[in-house]
Amino acid sequence: MTDPLVIFDLLLALAIVALAVAALSVRDLYAMIVVFVIFGLLSALAWVRLSAPDVALAEAAIGTGVTGALLLKTLHHLRFASGQRSVSMTPTIPVPTGVMLANAAFCGLITLGLAVAFLGAPSAGPGFDTLVAESMPASGVDHPVTGVLLNFRAYDTLMEVVVLLAAVVAVWQIERGLSDAPAPEMGEVWQGFARLALPAIVVVGTYLLWVGAEAPGGAFQGGAVLAAVGLLLLLTRAYVPQPHHRGIARGAFVLGTGVFALVALLVAGGGRVAFEYPLDHAKTLILLIEGMVTISIAVTLAALFHGREPVALRMEDRHDT
Amino acid sequence: MTPDLDPMILAIFLPLFGAIAAFMLPRAAAVIGLVTLAMTTGAVFWLAQRVLATGAVIVPLGGWGAPLGIDLRADGLSVAMLLLTSAVGFLVSVAALDSLKGADQARQRQYFWPLWLLLLTGMNGVYLSTDIFNLYVMIEVIALAAVGLTVLSGTKAALRAGLEYMYASILGALLFLMGVGFVYMQAGQLDFAGLIAAEPSAAMSAALALMIVGLLLKTALFPLHFWLPAAHANATAPASALLSGLVVKAALYIFLRLTTYMPLPDEILITLIGALGAGAVLWGGVQALRAERLKLLVAWSTVVQIGLIFIAFARAGQVGLAESWKAAALLILAHGVAKAAMFLAAGRIKDEIGHDRIRDLDRAPVRPTLAQFTFALAAISLIGLPPSLGFIGKWSLMEGAMSAGYWHWVVITMIGTLMSVAYFSRVLSAFLRFDRVRAPVGEHQGWALADAAPLTLALTAIGLGLMAAPILRFIEIGYPFGAAL
Amino acid sequence: MTPDLIYGVTGIAVFGIGLVGALCAQERLRRVLALKLCSVGAGFLLVVGAWREPPDTPDPVPHALVITGIVVMVSATAVALALIRRLQTLEAEDDA
Amino acid sequence: MMDAPLLPLFILMTSLLAAPILFALPERSARLRTGINLSMAALKVALVGWLSLKVSQGGIYDLRFEMLPGLEFKLQADPLAILFIALSAVLWLITTVYSVGYLEHGPHRARFFGFFSLCVAATVGIAMSGNLFTFLLFYELLTLATYPLVIHRGDAASLRAGRIYLIYTLAGGLVLLLGTLGLWVLAGTTDFVPGGVLADVVAETPLAAKLLFVVLIGALGVKAALFPFHAWLPIAMVAPAPVSALLHAVAVVKAGAFGIMRVVYEVFGIETAQALGVTVPLAVLAGITIIYGSLRAITQDDIKKRLAYSTVSQVSYITLGVALASPIAATGALAHLIHQGLMKITMFMAAGNLAEGLGVKRVSQMDGVGRAMPGTMLAFSLAALGMIGLPPLAGFVSKWYLAQGGLEAGQDWVIALLLGSSLLNAIYFLPMLHRAWFCDAAAQRDGAPGRPRIGWMLAAPPITTAVLVLVAGGFANAPFSPLEWTRFIVAIEYQE
């Protein structure tokens, strides 16, 4: 009972809940995002505590990192669009306090019910442990999470990449017109740092991808780290998307989905069904898929950050609105 | 090595590859879209034939088999939904060719096809899935593509509606995901067989409640319908047809499946679901009577119809659940076809007249007769007049309720029918009134190509009523789930 | 008290807080963030479900599911934020 | 002669398939449209003749198609069906000629004739329905097909009338749906079987059976314009004359009356219904409607409205005859189905001619119209005298049988009712005839308009039907006369 780790867990849990409340109640939106990022990092820490390093990595890189960047970019845009005024984003009709309280009470009740149900559920109950352990040798990889993601439940993962593709198509569709919020100015020190950091990040990302076959890491975490490269390039104006890059960008978006789906289809035959990789080639195929998916994820996340489809700055070069 | 093709795999992968191709080659997007739709429809017919011949079929993806892997499974109900989706989708696509042909719609043309094909991938995936986490991913594919289609026109109203829709969609999906978490904790499995085998417990009740609330939010059952009318009314016509006719059906389908495998534990809950349906019928009816725009009226009618489908589900209480889902399924199919027709017709009317204000429809000297006729036919099915499929569905609903002595559902259905007559006749009488027009009325005669697709849909909605007996036999194939395994 | 108990309750609390935010938050950006909190809450639940008393290794399947969920959520967030940005641009044009 | 089991379907298709073709024809292809219309109508008459010959020789026609498990779409051609389709086929042909003349150069003719065809198809379907479920399908189709005809003029008044018409008939249809469902749930079948299908149910749960009777008769009573559901009928008068003629003589009100006949005879069975004690209240309700309609007719100045209230009254003779539960009264009721149709269509077409030719729409304007349009007014007078019940015209035959049936059933009040009604008929029809033939036109209208020009297509139809009125009454006992055919039917329904 006096295990210091329990005290750590309790403190961490309290901090997470407190930060969640703070994120919703802090008035300033910038502060809200900062609180959220800390909340995300602490959640990732908690997941490490729960022996889920892959999840922690993904949450830190994508759930917190990329999401935080997206939120900041949007906040920047909103402040620019409403002309530096203090941003009240929604022209709100104030919700009556009664309704608010009713909502809160309602959610409280639901949460309480869920907590009761959770406490009644078997802890460390039945799972896939044995099944996964038995099937790992036939999966072609050594790291169980990668085995699940890219072999046992590869179909889910394919559809997850499809979700990303759908997101980037939707974002390109939604945002249009010329850039109306210039990128934030960055100091020279920052730019210098970025130039230095870039190669290192690339190396880390690629390593994460490679190591995923045996140890925590893999396509998504690697992709997210590589996406950070893209973000830096975009922020530092080291790379400015050009209209004629659209084709390449489209290709990069669909690369992961396309290759993944093609491999899944082409392995079918001779008694095998879709997604059933021949054991001899399983590792190669999975690495191929992971590699392509990593590229797609990196480019897609960067594009989601950039937002608009790159369009020509001069009107006469533009073929569509 | 030539890969072995399976129609189930094709039904998911064809639209996926189509979406990729349409995104890569924007100029050829329409052609790619139509070809993909045609091929997908073909694959679904192939699958239907196979299911008809051999009963439910399964593909264990990756060769692992559930519960470790994910199985695709097609039975009568899923194939019926697939047929609805691809056939209606094909006709809506044909109609989209015309309604997106404007010079100022290049952007809409470019993005409509990849988004719609991704949407189709997601919907087909839902109908073939047997794994609740996979269902979560699929409803997210649907949600993102559907929001993209909602805001295709780029107007402020559409964007606002799209954002509300997005919030509702994400929240619904997250509630569902939370439910998945509880199922995992209790059962340690995520496939349907695991759901059936799971012991009833507090965790399973919480899971069921979370998933159902999430799905009700996605399918817009009163009072969780708040996002639907604006989203469906402000989208461009083909997108509205897809959203109203097909997209809400995916969550409805999951609801039907879940409640088959995890029956609602209490009669009161079933009554509650029915009561919400009744609320939808009444509130939606009142709003449709007040709506000032044609498309808004049609969108409110979707709220009403969804309510009716839930009443059909609850029509005979717990004892009747083994049969009631069929009545609900009939209404789902009927609404899918008829509502797609009606939204396309409404879009055509708006295009021809130039506005869709109901009170001014009878002032227009232009009368797109065929589109108006289509609208009327679709209304016949939605009101539930014979011999349409809507009528058969309503008949099944009332028959079951009456046999079980649940007269309140009969009364609600009749009130709903009268209200639907009232709000549709607002529109229909405007079509047929001429004395407020100053100029000579030009009624279109003969055939406009753009009317062909909606008219076909509307006639199908009427004609399918004659096929109700075979449809009912077909959707029972492979029911209940355990039978085919 | 074991970590799964502590963090399980934490996850449910975070989910509930997110739910309140999603229903009550006024600003568009904050509602997106509230939804993200809900997703973290759901993630907690799955990770906790996968946890096994050491030295047993946890069940990898829920981990994979949470990773998938994180990617799905970032996609949805990006679309919601794009909508917010576009809408703000249009509304600002109207004001001007 | 070769046998064709699908004959009933062909008869249905002559008008059902004509409709889409007529819709699709361009507005200007008037000749082609008229050609299709007339040839289809003539074909239908021929097919019906053939069918009735076969049925009188004992041919049985029964087409089934499964709609839902256990629930069939069923067409049958029993003698009762033949009676009704014969009426509609003949009158459709005549009304088509009349409509072509009436709507010459009018707008929206493609739409009009399309719905006109659908309307007749629905009527034929109602006649041949083999069960209440099928009946319901065509009953609703009839509502939908007649609505655009009622509001054909497209002005505010027609739309108002159309709305009231739609509310009444669709509400009636909804109640019929409820009744059909109730029958299905109670009896497990909706088939029309002579002698009825509800004997067991009546024995077990008489209350449910009574309720079902009330629901079904209430639903059908809307179209049959049974008091107090009659209000839509006079309002629907804004429709063009041929539509009114068809609505009153064949399609809508007759469908209701015909349905009441099917329900009493073949759902409940006359003996069961009698045992249940529901026939006498129905007869009384019919009696009230007869007197009420006549009283209201007297005060109407608008010709079409006076005719409409007369219809309210006259159609209830049919219900009365059915409810009296006597074979002789039933004969009178069935004969009246035909006779009233012939007489009323004559009067409406004549009224249409008066409006078209002379602009006369009110009774008070009718002075001297007999001299201006002698043919039309002769036809009108014949029909009016027939309505009053003057022998040997058709109306006399039906009333005679009804009175005898009343005596047979021991309901002596029926005699008084019939006498009173005939007196009221005389009170509202004779002044019209008096004005038409014996008053001077000059006093009423500015100048003498000379002979009005109406084409033969308007002039001939009412004269034709008037001749039929004469023939049906005068040769009532000839083979294949309506009366003879009704005796054939009554023998089946009373299972003699």
Task: Outline the secondary-structure elements.
The complex is a heterotetramer of chains A (321), B (485), C (96) and D (496).
Chain B: H1 7-24, H2 29-54, E1 57-60, E2 71-74, H3 76-99, H4 106-128, H5 132-150, H6 156-187, H7 192-197, H8 202-219, H9 228-234, H10 237-261, H11 267-290, H12 294-314, H13 321-353, E3 366-367, H14 369-383, H15 389-403, H16 407-432, E4 442-443, H17 449-463, H18 468-475
Parallel strand pairs in B: 3-4
Antiparallel strand pairs in B: 1-2
Helix pairs in contact in B: 1-2, 1-4, 2-3, 2-4, 3-4, 3-10, 3-13, 3-17, 3-18, 4-5, 4-10, 5-6, 5-10, 6-8, 6-9, 8-10, 9-10, 9-12, 10-13, 11-12, 11-16, 12-13, 12-15, 12-16, 13-14, 13-15, 13-17, 14-16, 14-17, 15-16
Chain C: H1 3-24, H2 28-50, H3 60-95
Helix pairs in contact in C: 1-2, 2-3
Chain D: H1 7-16, H2 18-24, H3 30-56, E1 62-68, E2 71-76, H4 79-102, H5 109-128, H6 132-150, H7 156-187, H8 199-204, H9 206-223, H10 232-235, H11 241-249, H12 252-268, H13 270-276, H14 279-298, H15 303-323, H16 327-358, H17 369-372, H18 374-388, H19 394-408, H20 413-438, H21 456-474, H22 482-493
Antiparallel strand pairs in D: 1-2
Helix pairs in contact in D: 1-3, 1-5, 2-5, 3-4, 4-5, 4-11, 4-16, 4-21, 5-6, 6-7, 6-12, 7-9, 9-12, 11-16, 12-13, 12-15, 14-15, 14-20, 15-16, 16-18, 16-19, 16-21, 16-22, 18-20, 18-21, 19-20, 19-21
Structural class of chain C: mainly alpha
Q: Which overall shape of chain C is indicated by the principal axes computed on the Cα atoms?
A: elongated
Distance between the amino and carboxyl termini of chain B: 30 Å
Regarding CATH, which class of chain C? Mainly Alpha
Biggest protein-protein interface?
A: A-C, 98 and 80 residues
Low-confidence stretches of chain C: none
Number of strands of chain C: 0
The count of helical stretches of chain C stands at 3
Shape of chain B: globular
Number of domains of chain C: 1
Largest pleated sheet of chain C: none
Polypeptide structure, described:
- The complex is a heterotetramer of chains A (321), B (485), C (96) and D (496).
- By secondary structure, chain A is mainly alpha-helical.
- Chain A folds into two domains: 1-89; 141-321, no CATH class.
- In chain A, 69% of the residues lie in helices and 0% in strands.
- Chain A has eleven helices and no strands.
- Chain A has helices spanning 4-25, 29-49, 53-81, 97-120, 129-135, 144-152, 154-174, 188-211, 219-235, 246-266, 282-306.
- The longest helix of chain A has 29 residues, at 53-81.
- Chain A is globular, with a radius of gyration of 23 Å.
- Chain B has a domain at 266-485.
- The model of chain B has no long low-confidence stretch (mean pLDDT 90).
- In chain B, helix 12 (294-314) packs antiparallel against helix 16 (407-432).
- Chain B has helices at residues 7-24, 29-54, 76-99, 106-128, 132-150, 156-187, 192-197, 202-219, 228-234, 237-261, 267-290, 294-314, 321-353, 369-383, 389-403, 407-432, 449-463, 468-475; strands spanning 57-60, 71-74, 366-367, 442-443.
- Chain C is mostly helical.
- Chain C has one domain (3-95): Helix Hairpins.
- Helix content of chain C is 84%, strand content 0%.
- The longest helix of chain C has 36 residues, at 60-95.
- The model of chain C has no long low-confidence stretch (mean pLDDT 91).
- Chain D has a domain at 326-496.
- In chain D, helix 3 (30-56) runs antiparallel to helix 4 (79-102), helix 6 runs antiparallel to helix 12 (252-268) and helix 19 (394-408) packs antiparallel against helix 20.
- The mean pLDDT of chain D is 85.
- In chain D, a hairpin with a 2-residue loop joins strand 1 and strand 2 (71-76).
- Classes of the chains: A mainly alpha (321), B mainly alpha (485), C mainly alpha (96), D mainly alpha (496).
- Chains in contact: A-B, A-C, B-C, B-D.
